[in-house]
Amino acid sequence: MLRSSRASRENGRGSSIAPSNRLSVAIESAGLSFHWVELRDKTVENNRRTEKDSLHKSDRQVKSVRSAVELLSARQGVGDRIAIIAEKGAADAAVLGSRAFSQVRSFVFLSGRLSSTAKQFLTEWQDDPVLCIASSEDKASLRDMTDIYLSSNHPDTDLHVFEGMGRGERMIEKWAFRFPDREPIEQLIAGWIRRQLSSVGREREVSFTTEDGWEIFGNLLFPDTDVWPSPGAVLLHSGRSDRYVFASLERLLVREGFAVLNIDWRGRGKSTSKGKYFDLSKEERANGRLDAKAAIDFLTSQDGVDRDRVGVVGVVHGAEHAVRGSIGDSRVKALALLTGYIPVDDKERDYLTSGAVHTLYVTCTGHKQVTQIMRALYEATPDKLTRLLMYDGGAIGYQLFELDPKLEPLVVEWLKAGVAQ
Prior knowledge:
The protein is an alpha/beta fold. The protein folds into two domains: 6-199, 3-Layer(aba) Sandwich (Rossmann fold); 202-420, Alpha/Beta hydrolase fold, catalytic domain (Rossmann fold, 3-Layer(aba) Sandwich), CATH 3.40.50.1820. The chain contains 16 helices and 14 strands. The strands form two sheets. The protein has an eight-stranded mixed β-sheet, sandwiched between helices. A hairpin with a 5-residue loop joins strand 7 (202-209) and strand 8. Helix 1 (21-29) runs parallel beside helix 8 (185-199), helix 3 crosses helix 4 and helix 4 packs across helix 5 (116-124). Mean pLDDT is 86; it is low at 1-19 and 41-57.
């Protein structure tokens, strides 16, 4: 299946040819489009000099990268999934010029040289994997590439070290000449990029209206898959956050085949058509359940979504909306409730303990009342998939994702099992 994505490549001064025929052919053969941006290569000599260059001498390079990403982002059906390939010193401009763009999903560095500023950005940019390629004799680049590999928590970040292959794009030609019977470097790059851009799915911002007139905004994501229809997942943040706390979780769900609707519920984020959250009455805030209900309706109305297999993730007040917006809705097969949730009445308790919906309860021992109630709900439920997770301390909701990097993947795997039954 062809991917309408762009791989933007930065080349440095000193390359023997314009974009490598081998690399461009491999990328196009992988179903990717190829956009060439030629940058003058200011190879990093030391981190102190690079910090100054990144602010002054390299400003033109950074602007060139920013302009290229803006151009690609504006193209319909193309710009939401961009990979950047950069060689040598141009890698620094690639990072600094694209850091403000969520459309950039992955990087490939050939003998990349990076300032400490760029390294810090990549360390914080944990949602985007990096493929690092270096030659063992190029010690400066190998050091920078190793730093990136070791500092990344992304499972798809990878490091390939070759021997005697030179620097940058020339590695591709040299490898092909010396090892004609082994996998070409350009195929390694193209295959890796295709997997990464495919795994983030297709995303667009959407809006819909609740039954009481709120305009709700959210991210709608679809997986790249040949298996249709896809199960659905609705994500509901807490009262002190917005949809962007689920930036990592939404990608993990898409990668596992879910169609995802991650919303800003009423009063938060972009969904402020009738006021901001802390200015709303208690009754109006509680009506966030209508946002959850409308989100389920909107998601299941989309082509390619299995309307009978939906999971909902809610955090604190988002967990309340998840339960109250799904009571009696047979489309909802699984609920993941992260801390802070307490049933308001017997109707909610009966719903959660009936076995009509699989429930994952996540709590912390520091929240004693919540933990006691969640434990009681868990123990009263005959459903075998219902599960209780307890952490030490007093973390709330999405804070647990930072404390336990295994929690988000666990939620995804649990939801897969929950919507399958």
